[in-house]
């Protein structure tokens, strides 16, 4: 995993804007507080399918990062055996998703939220995002 991505994920975790683990991530997506979903490339097909469907249903950007393994994510955020992460801050979400997309190591499913994030980031604006 790239050092910059690792640093971004670690900083996001310390800021309290990163939710980890399958059940906790599902809850955050259902309560519509999730701004993006990241699933590790070596996660099970069941996990990938479940979070892909949830992200599509709730219109949350989903990224299956093929270069990001469970071990990489776990070591970056300081937990054991983590395959799914949800970002709840708009600035972190935009930067991390942009980094994964630009590195060419992920499969991204766009949604209306990610288009809004891209517009705001290109204008360097902060928006009040209410769900």
Summarize the structure.
The protein contains six helices and five strands. The chain is an alpha+beta fold. The chain has a single domain, classed as Ribosomal protein L30/S12 (60s Ribosomal Protein L30, Chain: A), CATH 3.30.1330.30.
Task: Note the topology.
Layout: H1 3-14, E1 18-20, H2 22-30, E2 36-40, H3 45-57, E3 62-65, H4 70-77, E4 84-87, H5 90-103, E5 106-109, H6 112-122
Parallel strand pairs: 2-3
Antiparallel strand pairs: 1-4, 2-4, 3-5
Helix pairs in contact: 1-4, 1-5, 2-3, 5-6
Sum up the structure in keywords.
single chain; 131 residues; alpha+beta; 60s Ribosomal Protein L30, Chain: A; globular
Structural features, described:
The chain has 131 residues and is an alpha+beta fold. It has one domain (3-122): Ribosomal protein L30/S12 (60s Ribosomal Protein L30, Chain: A). 51% of the residues lie in helices and 15% in strands. It contains six helices and five strands. It has helices at residues 3-14, 22-30, 45-57, 70-77, 90-103, 112-122, and strands at residues 18-20, 36-40, 62-65, 84-87, 106-109. It has a five-stranded mixed β-sheet with strand order 1-4-2-3-5, with helices on both faces. Strand 2, helix 3 (45-57) and strand 3 form a beta-alpha-beta unit. Helix 1 runs antiparallel to helix 5 (90-103) and helix 5 (90-103) crosses helix 6. The radius of gyration is 13 Å and the shape is globular.
